[in-house]
């Protein structure tokens, strides 16, 4: 068997095109502000890609780049200004922050109504309580891929590898909300391969290159690979050994070109929804 490749790049492009149409019909441009502190090189690429995609879809997007020596108080003051600015609908604080700034303090400072990353404890709590709110972009993107691929979620056994606040936990909540039977596995899980083999849907978000092997998965499983790992030779690989797992799985996302592009598309979707919630659609 050879797995169906789930083309996140194409699904994301279609979603961005639909969002651009909805934005064009609004009497205003949804405002997105990305706050970057310091010179983390990977962040630079991410921030530029977000800004480019947002502008291309008709958003009023800008990046606020603060120097590496910015204090926590200065960052919180910048966030407070954006919270109060009526043309700003979405605020994203790019992680990682310099060590001197507490990430939780920055996340908690963002107005939950403008928290388009969905990381604020209020939005995390809403998700856990099954209430509507802004949902983290990467897990939201995974749900979108599963929907586009026509994967039946109700009653499916889903295994989420990883329990981070930004991917694993919200991912598990979303799958649970869609009536999957969810297992969350992590670095203390006993018999990880055995847990994974029980999955109808396996979402890998661990940050370990090609950790999931062919003998970890059941035939026909849907594999979603969130991992982005740079190997010493420069190659980009996921958390799943793509070639060998694709020979067993029913469907699989590639890296790159799977979940990654969905994250930015869902950021735009969150920003549009935050804008409509604040300003209406007409
Ligand atoms: P974190 O490092 O925050 O979390 C990793 C999780 O994996 C932890 O829960 C950890 O367990 C678990 N884990 C680590 N090693 C093992 C192991 N050997 N066996 C079992 N579980 C393990 O990572 P993130 O959630 O932020 O990101 C995960 C991956 O997804 C990374 O590769 C990242 O680059 C990628 N990513 C991709 C995005 C995209 O747009 N496609 C967006 C965000 C992230 P424990 O809690 O016990 O320590």
UniProtKB/TrEMBL annotation:
Location of the Tetrahydrofolate dehydrogenase/cyclohydrolase catalytic domain: 6-117
This protein's pathway: One-carbon metabolism; tetrahydrofolate interconversion
PROSITE patterns attached to this UniProt entry: THF_DHG_CYH_1, THF_DHG_CYH_2
Positions of the Tetrahydrofolate dehydrogenase/cyclohydrolase NAD(P)-binding domain: 136-276
GO molecular function terms noted in the UniProt entry: methenyltetrahydrofolate cyclohydrolase activity; methylenetetrahydrofolate dehydrogenase (NADP+) activity
Catalyzed chemical reaction(s): (6R)-5,10-methylene-5,6,7,8-tetrahydrofolate + NADP(+) = (6R)-5,10-methenyltetrahydrofolate + NADPH; (6R)-5,10-methenyltetrahydrofolate + H2O = (6R)-10-formyltetrahydrofolate + H(+)
Annotated binding of NADP(+), by residue: 162-164, 228
EC number(s) from the headed UniProt entry: 1.5.1.5, 3.5.4.9
Superkingdom per UniProt: Bacteria
Keywords: Amino-acid biosynthesis, Histidine biosynthesis, Hydrolase, Methionine biosynthesis, Multifunctional enzyme, NADP, One-carbon metabolism, Oxidoreductase, Purine biosynthesis
GO terms for cellular component: cytosol
Matching Pfam families: THF_DHG_CYH, THF_DHG_CYH_C
GO biological process, one term: tetrahydrofolate interconversion
CDD domains reported in the protein's UniProt record: NAD_bind_m-THF_DH_Cyclohyd
InterPro entries: Aminoacid_DH-like_N_sf (IPR046346), NAD(P)-bd_dom_sf (IPR036291), THF_DH/CycHdrlase (IPR000672), THF_DH/CycHdrlase_cat_dom (IPR020630), THF_DH/CycHdrlase_CS (IPR020867), THF_DH/CycHdrlase_NAD-bd_dom (IPR020631)
Subunit-structure text: Homodimer.
Record function comment: Catalyzes the oxidation of 5,10-methylenetetrahydrofolate to 5,10-methenyltetrahydrofolate and then the hydrolysis of 5,10-methenyltetrahydrofolate to 10-formyltetrahydrofolate.
Family: Belongs to the tetrahydrofolate dehydrogenase/cyclohydrolase family.
Protein name: Bifunctional protein FolD
Native species: Neoroseomonas lacus
């Amino acid at each position: 068997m050879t797995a169906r490749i789930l083309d996140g790049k194409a699904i994301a492009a279609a979603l961005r095109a639909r969002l651009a149409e909805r934005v064009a019909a609004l009497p205003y441009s949804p405002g997105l502000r990305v706050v970057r502190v310091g010179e983390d090189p990977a962040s630079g690429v991410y921030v530029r890609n977000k800004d480019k995609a947002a502008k291309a879809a008709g958003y009023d997007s800008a990046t606020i780049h603060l120097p590496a020596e910015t204090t926590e108080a200065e960052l919180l003051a910048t966030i407070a200004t954006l919270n109060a600015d009526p043309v700003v609908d979405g605020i994203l604080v790019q992680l990682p922050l310099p060590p001197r700034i507490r990430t939780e303090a920055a996340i908690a400072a963002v107005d939950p109504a403008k928290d388009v990353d969905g990381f604020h404890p209020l939005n995390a709590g809403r998700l856990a309580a099954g209430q509507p709110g802004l949902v983290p972009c990467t897990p939201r993107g995974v749900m979108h891929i599963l929907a586009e691929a026509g994967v039946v979620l109700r009653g499916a056994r889903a295994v989420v590898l990883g329990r981070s606040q930004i991917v694993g936990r919200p991912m598990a909540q979303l799958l649970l909300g869609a009536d999957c039977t969810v297992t969350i596995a992590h670095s203390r899980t006993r018999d990880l391969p055995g847990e994974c083999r029980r999955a109808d849907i396996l979402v890998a978000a661990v940050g370990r290159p090609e950790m999931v092997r062919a003998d970890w998965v059941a035939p026909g499983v849907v594999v979603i690979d969130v991992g982005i790992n740079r190997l010493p030779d420069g190659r980009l690989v996921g958390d799943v050994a793509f070639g060998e797992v694709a020979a067993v799985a029913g469907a699989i996302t590639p890296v790159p070109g799977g979940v990654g592009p969905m994250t930015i598309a869902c950021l735009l979707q969150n920003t549009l929804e935050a804008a409509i919630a604040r300003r209406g659609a007409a």
